[in-house]
């Protein structure tokens, strides 16, 4: 066999290996997309019921006699607050189903409506007490979570009885039951009752926490990167600092939570479960990522630009702030936003500082008790009610949406500030 044939066979084997490698790579990408599609499909299917809610139409007798109000004079808000709205709702249900007479059936009837229905009626009359003189009021109120699950998905649970199914069928025959868009999901905070639970508190808690994280980690991280890359002398101290920064990027996030618990809460006495503490903890976790990405962006600036600036008389400080930083800004912003996106999805360090608490009120600032989206997902995933499964999936979709938006912003900023040389 001559050399030409040997070379041809060698090339043939090499090309065959390259084709096999390309096939394996494409197969790996394809398999990855399949698993991603299956995951997203499963989440979307589970989350879809959370965006709608079952409502029941009730007619209320709100005349003064039935509400034990004075027969004359103007009704004020203090009088409305004293009304037993639970009894009013039960009376409305009995009027809608006069054939229900036994005590056992009445209990089943009362369980059709959410416990939050009385607050809806209270709010309606509290804001407009003049409705009392109209003697009749029709409202759509939320159904109980078990009724909601059954009506939307037609899935029987051990918590819904045959009698309740009959009552639901009667409501449907009378056009007294419907599904509507679940605005409560975006306007309310956490609740023990799934039909009354929402993510507004977690959304604002995430906003305040990320705001503190951004205000602390971005300037500190960029300043540290500029110093280490442009001004710090090369000695054992800076080498030690660089090694520790690289090591901190690989430290488990729960360790930062323990550090925040020991330093910010126990030592400094900052409020527990507050976005201020959560933001400081996430800042510690995000700093290594921002420093490393910022240093890499500063290193990518061609030395010729720095040398040209120095050659025309610019000082080292002017070179850094007038030339190096503006050219490195795309990489710095990209790394910072990716670090913030990573912080948005963290739950372990926030669990350690108490942001796992049950928070009903919407936080109004960085000092108020709050929770965040990942922790809200963790809390709802551990709840036994079936309706919380859909709420958990819906919150995951919202969190994924935030992450996609943040990554899209990073790509946009990189394109906007990117310069070619």
Please describe the structure with a list of short key phrases separated by commas or semicolons.
single chain; 17 helices; 2 domains; mainly alpha; elongated; three-stranded antiparallel β-sheet; 3 strands; MetI-like fold; 421 residues
Kindly summarize this structure in a few lines:
The chain is mainly alpha-helical and 421 residues long.
Write the layout of secondary structure elements.
Layout (H helix, E strand, L loop, with lengths): L2 H45 L4 E10 L15 H5 L3 H12 L6 H8 L6 H11 L8 E7 L2 H9 L8 H12 L3 E5 L2 H4 L12 H32 L4 H13 L4 H15 L7 H25 L3 H9 L4 H29 L3 H5 L20 H9 L5 H31 L4
Antiparallel strand pairs: 1-2, 1-3
**Count of folded domains:** 2
Strand order of the largest sheet: 2-1-3
Largest sheet: 3 strands, antiparallel
Strand content: 5-15%
- Termini, distance in Å? 52 Å
Shape: elongated
Rg from alpha-carbon coordinates:
31 Å
